[in-house]
Design goal:
The protein is an alpha/beta fold. Helix 13 links the parallel strand 12 and strand 13. The chain is elongated. The protein has 15 helices and 13 strands. Helix 1 runs parallel beside helix 15. Helices cover 39% and strands 19% of the residues.
Length: 378
């Protein structure tokens, strides 16, 4: 086994992806003869910039931007390969960047300001990570920060928010920052929801952002309305996978920036050039907090396994828990998976960091002891 790649997601609430990677790597190096490459990974949500900077190197930049509620904050973004910017919407327009819930008023304006800050230092290649937003404005705030004008029925310009999207009558792209047209944008999304409707951005995600039942209806109606205006003035169809990511910012990025939307994990693996690392690899080890039927839907372990199987490489996965429908992970390319909980305990106890780390260490070591046995019998 000449090389092992450990490439886990975080176990949310228990261990970060670097902590999980360290445990996996330590066991691999202790029990089997191999070189280990560590790639702590994310799926396009919060933590994606850190993962990419660890994997590829690069620098972190700060910019002063507006929070979802309009106050000035410091937000970070990453620069890799000279002119490639990696920007998380959560850094500027995330739930943790406001003092309370503002479902109808929260804006992505600061997200646009972060993009503009990266443009100003010469970046022309962008990876936009859309997890963790506080907004449901279809990216209109972002677009306004980059020069797009929105007009109401009185032909007055304004910056739409979730509660005022239904007032947009016309969109003018003629003043869009010219550097946007000189750039390429890739949106990395960890969801596949449509823009509006029962499975859309408002009904599925807005309650998590503090929206009441009545506000959800207002937001969904606004998304339906703004989609019609965008389709008319920008000529971009709203019926696309992940249009509903980050409160419709997935669609907004496609419409206003010409962005391509990809699975978050696919985009991150591409940026890290995961496929080139697989050439002489003997084993891939991944994992996340819970393996279940949703794992195969754009989650990190399934994305890792998909590419690994193209190279006919074996994949093992570890998780905090495994549900009955996790068997679908086998068809997705995960050869075997192992839950780390080793006894009957409450969820709260299982998720305590010290317990989780010890359970992970004990389970992983047993698996690599087994692999050592097979290695020694060859």
């Amino acid at each position: 086994m000449q090389k092992v790649i450990v490439i886990p997601d975080s176990f949310k609430g228990s261990m970060s992806s670097p902590e999980v990677a360290d445990i996996l790597a330590a066991a691999a190096m202790k029990y089997v003869k191999c070189d280990v490459i560590k790639i702590p990974i994310a799926d396009g949500g919060e933590g994606s910039v850190d993962c990419i900077l660890r994997a590829k190197g690069g620098t972190r930049r700060l910019a002063t931007v507006h929070s979802p509620e309009g106050t000035l904050i410091e937000a970070a973004f990453g620069i890799v390969d000279g002119n490639t910017a990696v920007i998380e919407i959560a850094e500027s327009s995330g739930l943790t960047k406001q003092t309370g819930f503002h479902a109808l008023e929260a804006s992505t304006y600061g997200f646009g300001e972060l993009i503009r800050a990266a443009l100003e230092i010469g970046c022309r290649n962008f990876f936009l990570c859309l997890g963790g937003s506080a907004t449901t404005d279809c990216g209109c705030g972002m677009a306004a920060a980059l020069g797009v004008n929105f007009y109401n029925a009185d032909k007055e310009t304004f910056i739409p928010t979730g509660g005022t999207m239904s007032q947009v009558e016309k969109i003018d792209l003629s003043h869009l920052d010219q550097r946007v047209r000189q750039s390429t944008f890739t949106v990395m999304s960890d969801v596949i929801n449509p823009l509006y409707g029962p499975m859309g951005a408002a009904y599925v995600f807005a309650p998590q952002k503090g929206a009441t039942d009545e506000e959800v209806k207002i937001l969904d109606a606004g998304l339906v309305h703004i989609a019609g205006v965008i389709e008319c003035d920008c000529h971009v169809d709203s019926h696309m996978n992940a249009a509903g990511a980050a409160g419709g910012t997935g669609y907004g990025c496609a419409a206003f920036l010409g962005a391509k939307i990809v699975s978050g994990i696919d985009g991150l693996l591409s940026l890290c050039r995961f496929d080139t690392l697989l050439q002489d690899c003997g084993l891939i080890v991944t994992g996340e907090g819970c393996l279940d039927g949703q794992t195969v839907m754009r989650k990190a372990p399934a994305g890792v396994a998909k590419i690994a199987k193209e190279f006919q490489k074996p994949v093992l996965a570890f998780s905090g828990c495994v549900t009955e429908d996790a068997k679908a992970c086998h068809a997705a390319g995960i050869d075997a998976f192992f839950p780390i909980v080793r006894g009957a305990v409450s969820l709260e106890e299982a998720m305590q960091t010290d317990h989780a780390k010890q359970n992970m260490t004990d389970t992983v070591e047993q698996v690599f002891r087994m692999l050592r046995t097979f290695q020694n019998t060859k």
